[in-house]
Every structure is written in C-alpha cells, then in structure tokens.
Amino acid sequence: MSTDGLVIGRTNAGKTSFCLRLARALGLRELNWLVERTDGRTERRRMLLSEAQEILSSGDAHQTRELQTLILSVPRGKSDRIIRVTDSTGLADGLHHDASVRRAMAQTLRSMIEAKVVFHVIDASVVGQALQRAGDMKGFRLNDLDEQMFALGRSRSSYIVLANKMDLPGAREGYRWLRQHLDKDRILAISAREGTGFQEVKRHVWRLA
Ligand SMILES: Nc1nc2c(ncn2[C@@H]2O[C@H](COP(=O)(O)OP(=O)(O)OP(=O)(O)O)[C@@H](O)[C@H]2O)c(=O)[nH]1
Ligand SMILES: [Mg+2]
C-alpha cells in the first residue's frame, strides 16, 4: 500500500495519538482507515474521531499491531487532495517474542522506503529523564533504535523528528538535546495530547498535497 507520510517510532512514543491529533487539526470528525493486516490483506475501517480517541485512552490493549493508513482530505486551491498518512507498529529493541509483532515491524521498515516523508515520533520526556540520569549532555547517546532511525533519516531528503509529550516533565531538556544532536530544520516540538505544535506539522503535511 503506498503512502505519503509514514509515522514511525518506539512503542508508546505517541504515534497513534499524533495521527488522531493531526486529523483533528485538519478539522476531520470521521476517520477513514485502510488497514494492512500482517497476513497481507487490506481492509477499510471507518470510525468517529471521538471513538478512536476513547479507545486510545482506555488502556494499553489497543497497541498498534498493523499498518493503518489515514485517508486525509486536504484543501488545495479550489479542490481537495487526498493524503495518506500511515501509523505503524512501535519498534522495540531486540527480537520480539511474538511473530506477528516481528512481521508488523518488518512491514514498517518496508514502508520507510516507499513513503514520501517519514515522521519519527520520540517521547521527549523520556529523553529528558535519561539525560538527567546520565548527568552529562555531551557524551549522551539515545537508545540504539532511535539512533539508527536518525541515521536512516539523515540519508533521506524528507524526514521530520517530532519531539512529542512536550507537556510532560523533562521534555524541554529532551527537546534541547535533540536540537543539538540533529539538524534543527528537521525537528518539531509537539504535544499530541494538548495539540501544541500542530500549525507547523500541518505545513509539512500540506506540502504533500
Ligand atoms: N502526556 C502526554 N501523553 C501522550 C502524548 N502523546 C501520547 N501520549 C500518551 O502516550 C501513550 C501512548 O500513546 P500512543 O499514541 O498509543 O503511542 P504509540 O506510539 O501509537 O504506541 P504503539 O502503537 O504501542 O507503538 C498513551 O497513553 C497516550 O495517551 C502527549 O503529547 N502527552
Ligand atoms: Mg499506536
């Protein structure tokens, strides 16, 4: 399934929350998803944005296990353009014990090659807390997985790092480190929960239209 924007990142970084907030920022009330199951079949799912938000806030049973592509309608000139933004399974270190999760991660990596833009979601508060524990900003390295995604991202022309959860403690310090570590033009501070930073996100999404 082709996509315009692919959302990647570690488990729990806020990828699905980012997609729902983006839909809301674009004024959508109903969501149209194309779900690529790990057995290769694609199915269409429709739901109200409010329903999706409710499922997301009801615990961790809804962890994303398939590629789900949001079909977004974005105004361009007098007409609307369709943009596809794909939410993916969280990546985790090591080999996951569950084969379907491993397949879902492989699916995510394949889509990285095809997407026009990759949005890499990072929990900035987790970065800030890790920095605090390390006590030294200079020699600090993030986990291998995110560092490898940075390296992959640098080799692409369109790659955006979203420093998420800016509403949480430690996120400012995490964001500061990310800005020093990465190309400043590629990083945006957001809170998918509160909706901050989405004006800038929308600018990147409109470019896809
Ligand atoms: N405080 C705060 N919490 C957030 C924010 N974004 C997401 N969360 C919370 O973080 C948790 C994980 O969010 P998800 O959107 O499910 O994360 P995900 O990256 O899709 O997770 P997987 O699908 O399991 O990989 C949920 O409890 C969200 O409510 C944010 O900006 N601020
Ligand atoms: Mg998810």
UniProtKB/TrEMBL annotation:
<dbReference type="InterPro" id="IPR006073">
    <property type="entry name" value="GTP-bd"/>
</dbReference>
<protein>
    <submittedName>
        <fullName>50S ribosome-binding GTPase</fullName>
    </submittedName>
</protein>
<dbReference type="InterPro" id="IPR027417">
    <property type="entry name" value="P-loop_NTPase"/>
</dbReference>
<dbReference type="Pfam" id="PF01926">
    <property type="entry name" value="MMR_HSR1"/>
</dbReference>
<feature type="domain" description="G">
    <location>
        <begin position="6"/>
        <end position="165"/>
    </location>
</feature>
